[in-house]
Design goal:
The protein is mainly beta. It contains 1 helix and 14 strands.
Length: 199
């Protein structure tokens, strides 16, 4: 006669569905965490930025500003005393070139020049630009009361009224050394030649 014994399962309770779900989630998360620690997880792109400045000196600076170009492709406007910024620049060495300077202006130092970018950092460089004095030209204008003698730089900047009178002033001429101006005026009642300083 066979005897059958009933075995109690009280000591072998199976985990609940919720507990199983938590355990599985933990198993999935741990490898991902290990991957981040050993460098196999997501990484930040190795990029930085470059800030470019212009420092223009001289009596007649370029009124139109300049163009600065990164690696021969990406260009920005750069004012005569302004700044421009290039963002998302890959880490490493890059070339910057300054162009569209006026004829009387000369870039000081290397142009183009090399700038090194470090990831997460901003590299900076300043282009010095020296501008010489432009020749002055004389002209007659009625933009103010009467017809006056004016002078301005040859690029059309820095106009200035020299005679400033209610009379009719015409035919201005430079003295040989450029320090004085002769002109014809009727300020004395009849047309006559007058001379004044150029400044």
């Amino acid at each position: 006669m066979h005897r059958y014994h009933r075995h109690s399962r009280a000591g072998r309770r199976l985990p609940s569905p919720t507990l199983l779900s938590l355990l599985l989630t933990g198993l999935l998360v741990l490898p991902a965490c290990r991957g981040d620690r050993d460098g196999t997880g997501p990484t930040t792109p190795d990029v930085g930025s470059i800030e470019v400045a212009a420092n223009t000196t001289g009596e007649d600076p370029d009124p139109n500003g300049y163009t600065v170009t990164l690696d021969g492709a990406d260009s920005r406007f750069l004012g005569a005393s302004g700044t421009a910024t290039f963002t998302d620049v890959t880490a490493g060495s890059h070339e910057l070139a300054l162009s569209e300077t006026a004829r009387n202006c000369q870039v000081e130092g290397s142009n183009p020049r090399t700038v090194s970018v470090t990831a997460g950092m901003t590299a900076s460089t300043t282009f010095g630009v020296a501008c010489t004095r432009l020749p002055r030209i004389l002209f007659v204008s009625d933009r103010s009361e009467g017809s006056d003698v004016w002078k301005m730089a040859s690029n059309g900047t820095d106009p200035s009224n020299l005679s400033s009178a209610t009379s009719s002033d015409t035919d201005p001429r430079w003295s040989p050394d450029g320090s004085r101006v002769a002109f014809v005026s009727d300020r004395g009642g009849s047309a006559d030649v007058f001379v004044m300083d150029a400044d």
